[in-house]
Amino acid sequence: MSTAERSAAHEVAGVGAMLLGCIADDFTGATDLANNLVRAGMRVVQAIGVPAQPLDSDADAVVIALKSRTLPVEEAIAQSLAALRWLKAQGARQIYFKYCSTFDSTAQGNIGPVTEALQDALAGVPGSDFTIATPAFPDNQRTVFKGHLFVGDVLLNESGMQNHPLTSMTDANLVRVLQAQCRRKVGLIDYKVVAQGEVAIRERIEQLRAQGVAVAVVDAISNDDLMRLGPALKGMPLVTAGSGVAIGLPGNFGIVPSSTASTLPAATGLQAVVSGSCSLATNRQVQAFIQAGHPALAVDPLRLATQGATGVDVVAEALAWAEPLLNQGPVLIYSSADATAVKSVQGQLGVEAAGALVERTLAAIAGGLVTRGVRQLVVAGGETSGACVQALNITQMKIGPQIDPGVPWCHAHTEAAPREGLHLTLKSGNFGADDFFSKAFAVLA
After folding, report:
1. Is 24 helix (H, G, I), strand (E, B) or coil?
2. Contact (CB, 8 A) for 220 and 138
3. Degrees to nearest 5, angle at CA 311 with 429 and 343
4. Alpha-carbon distance 13 to 109, whole Å?
5. How far is residue 364's CA from residue 298's CA, in Å, rounded to a whole number?
6. How far apart are CA 397 and CA 423, in angstroms?
7. pTM value?
8. 107-110: which pairs have CB atoms within 8 A and are 24 or more residues apart?
9. Crossing angle for the helix pair 312-322 and 351-371, nearest 10 degrees?
């Protein structure tokens, strides 16, 4: 899309208006979504939390990253509605509520309640009585077939997500999962309809509307399905999905893929990885990094518990360990562990207390690493990413090139790196190839 064409699009939307306004329920999910929009040609700014003022209008999309996935329902709704108000005030033409590609939630929410709260808030907008829901992201082996979510070749509830410490997923039937969370009726747009393209999808939407359905789970087993779905969503006030649907939306605004959308400043400084995720994928990445001969230090949550909530001693020891090694290449500090070890710690400390303790400690370590000259930082795990970004007082990030599907490099300004800024990647626990940590630094180089 040329400069003139972008200007014309913004003129249609209103002076300084953005084209797409996005609300993500965690920080890694926000960068996942932003990454797909950038790959499709949009210039994207990610805001950490609801901004206090307008951002630079030189962006086609703004993604507001919340930490609302595991909050109590009312808090998640309140934060999401605050994000919606800000986005609408900036003139956003379409709203996108982004959740995880494994549909992370509990029987109470938060996906269903937040979706319905956004629909209620948009009630005066024509078409807001209906929206779609699909976490499909085939590039990361997340597909939806007959309303059931698959991770690779297995159903969601057989993928390891049944052991998630906060949002265990024991049912792969998304219509059933979402209906349990919603007052409105939930339906399905199946793969046969999606395969026929835009006209058939729109006809199915009208059929479901006539049946009183307000939210429809959509099948998608390939990127082609997502590209067929995209045009059918043009003009829909609210879209809810994982990040996969994003690849088909920029074209609705006349935007085409362009490498200039992902340009970041040149990388400098030292390199480090901080990992708090306990997913199967991240555990493999930790082991691959260690087997490649890179230095790594494990943080023991039980030891943290004996030293108070701040883990001051553990933080100091970790930074003292890392400091002489940083000049030799990337280092890894991690609390990742297998499901059995995680449950043991949770049994002794409690689920929330164990998670919060580790997050605060890793965030303090991340801040200390940046103070010691780290300017290329990989953070693994959604909750850990949120804690690290908040500890570094980062409020905005520019989205750059993709490392693996769903995970881009970003660039942010922070007081700890006031001159050159910080290159940062926030990796969802389940994302990335086994060699992700090493690959990340190679991509940036």
Report:
1. strand
2. yes
3. 45
4. 33
5. 15
6. 9
7. 0.81
8. 107/180, 107/181, 108/73, 108/181, 109/73, 109/76, 109/181, 110/25, 110/68, 110/69, 110/70, 110/71, 110/73, 110/76, 110/77, 110/181
9. 40
> Is there a contact between 26 and 32 (Cβ–Cβ < 8 Å)?
no
Q: Using one digit for the tens of pLDDT, what is the confidence trace for 177-227?
A: 999 999 999 999 999 999 999 999 999 999 999 999 999 999 999 999 999
Neighbours of 195 (CB within 10 A): 15
Number of neighbours of residue 321 by Cβ within 10 angstroms: 13
Give the residue among 320, 330, 445, 431 at the shortest CA–CA distance from 378. 330
Pick from 112, 173, 167: which is nearest to 144 by CA? 173
Q: What dihedral do alpha carbons 90, 414, 440, 430 form, nearest 10°? A: -60
Domain coverage including residue 424: 264-444
Q: How many Å apart are CA 28 and CA 26, to the nearest integer?
A: 6
Residues 431 and 353 grouped into a single domain: yes
* Count of CB atoms situated within 10 Å of the CB of 47: 22
- How many residues in total does the chain contain? 445
**Residue 300 backbone dihedrals phi, psi, to 5 degrees:** -95, 110
Q: Which residues, including other chains, have CB under 8 Å from residue 316's CB and lie 6 or more apart?
A: none
Query: What confidence tens digit (pLDDT) does each residue in 387-405 have?
Result: 999 999 999 999 999 999 9
104: CATH:
3.40.50.10840
d(CA 238, CA 236): 6
Residues 320 and 195 in one domain: no
Overall domain count for the chain: 2
User: Do residues 136 and 226 lie in contact, with contact meaning Cβ atoms separated by under 8 Å?
Assistant: yes
Burial label for 231, CB within 10 Å (0-12, 13-18, 19+), is middle
- Among 44, 31, 437, smallest CA distance to 262 is for 44
At position 319, the amino acid (one-letter code) is: L
Strand order in the sheet with 148-151: 142-145, 148-151, 154-155
Give the integer Cα–Cα distance in Å for 148 and 204: 19
On whether the CB atoms of residues 371 and 190 are closer than 8 A, the answer is no
Residues 193 and 306 in one domain: no
Place of tokens 């001969």: 293
Query: Are 223 and 287 part of one and the same domain?
Result: no
**Strands (DSSP E) found in 25-80:** 44-48, 61-65
| Per-residue pLDDT tens digits for 30-46 | 989 999 999 999 999 99
